[in-house]
Design goal:
With 102 residues, this protein is mostly helical. 69% of the residues lie in helices and 0% in strands. The protein has helices at 3-12, 33-61, 66-96. Helix 2 (33-61) runs antiparallel to helix 3 (66-96).
């Protein structure tokens, strides 16, 4: 086949049912993968803070023995340190991947 014939056939073959939006209002509404992860991490961070407050309230108001309080305090400290490192590193990741706006 001739290349010119292919170009002409390509130009005649218009897609049916495909409409290009006239306005540009929908162009800024796309969601990237990093944006979805950022939103999920924000809700997860809020949930973790709520769980920490509930656990601390349970430790102080529901304690029957000093041994339980000491062991729970040690585990709580370890969990808080691990989560702090996790969220700090994720925050640094988001700062690197933040879009630059003029």
């Amino acid at each position: 086949m001739n290349i010119d014939d292919l170009k002409d056939a390509w130009g005649l073959d218009e897609p049916k049912g495909m409409q290009i939006p006239v306005s540009t209002t929908m162009l800024g509404k796309t969601k990237s993968a990093v944006g979805k992860i950022r939103r999920n991490m924000k809700t997860e961070f809020i949930a973790v803070l709520v769980c920490y407050t509930m656990f601390i309230a349970l430790m102080f108001y529901g304690v029957q023995s000093a041994l339980f309080f000491n062991v729970a305090s040690i585990f709580m400290f370890i969990i808080i340190v691990l989560n702090s490192v996790y969220y700090f590193r994720f925050f640094l990741f988001l700062q690197i991947n933040r879009p630059v706006r003029p």
